[in-house]
């Protein structure tokens, strides 16, 4: 059943696909629903997902639709723009919240062809490089948001518009160390064998953009002054990125960092 005035959350990254942008998008959708806003999600399927899309989608409290999987790559961009247009028309979308720049091409088409306004959330990786296309999309958004002051400055430099910073948060029910934070810290340090040592922590998927290899190279120098330093990496490789993880292990063995990396 269609609902008049729906909010469309438009994103290319969404659970069960792992990653920060997808997690952010999910929390936005969940909070829209909690506030009783008629939100509906249009997202891309993922080959890297840790769970089948259909299985995940069925247990959510808000409706989730997926873009079709295009086999002919040159048609992907055009196809998704058309899908977004048709979706907005059929579902009587009132406005769109884009969770990343890549998803905004379809929203831009809806803005001009259907009169549906869109808001855009910026992430740093989207605006490391400027372009006329990005500036155009930023210029025609009803409102702009960023996940940090740095990202906001990158976006502002391309469009000279106000960008509202909404810092990323955490689900305190899921990530709750309890009342005794110090005891929790000691328990974790003992569990991973890093009690009493200086620790570097990196949380992120294992791919070149995250720079784990750069930190490992720096660790060689850090170890000279702090022999017991520990570099803890929390993350995993995505499909097709195993080569990078293999390279990290090879480098760790090559420079004898086995006792310092976990």
Could you explain how this protein is built, in words?
The radius of gyration is 21 Å and the shape is elongated. 39% of the residues lie in helices and 16% in strands. It is of the alpha/beta class. A seven-stranded parallel beta sheet has the order 3-2-1-4-5-6-7, with helices on both faces. Strands 8-9 form a two-stranded parallel sheet. Strand 6 (143-146), helix 6 and strand 7 form a beta-alpha-beta unit. The mean pLDDT is 87. It starts with 5 loop residues before the first strand and ends in an 8-residue tail after the last helix. The chain folds into two domains: 6-165, Rossmann fold; 181-254, Glycogen Phosphorylase B (Rossmann fold, 3-Layer(aba) Sandwich).
For this entry, give a set of tags.
single chain, 262 residues, Rossmann fold, 2 domains, 7-stranded parallel sheet, 9 helices
Number of strands: 9
The CATH architecture term of the largest domain is: 3-Layer(aba) Sandwich
* Total helical elements: 9
Global Rg: 21 Å
**Percent helix:** 25-40%
Q: Within the largest sheet, what's the order of strands?
A: 3-2-1-4-5-6-7
What's a concise summary of this model?
This protein has about 260 residues and is an alpha/beta fold.
SSE diagram, text form:
Layout: E1 6-11, H1 20-34, E2 39-43, H2 53-58, E3 64-66, H3 76-90, E4 93-98, H4 104-113, E5 118-122, H5 132-139, E6 143-146, H6 149-159, E7 164-165, H7 181-191, E8 199-203, H8 212-225, E9 230-234, H9 242-254
Parallel strand pairs: 1-2, 1-4, 2-3, 4-5, 5-6, 6-7, 8-9
Helix pairs in contact: 3-4
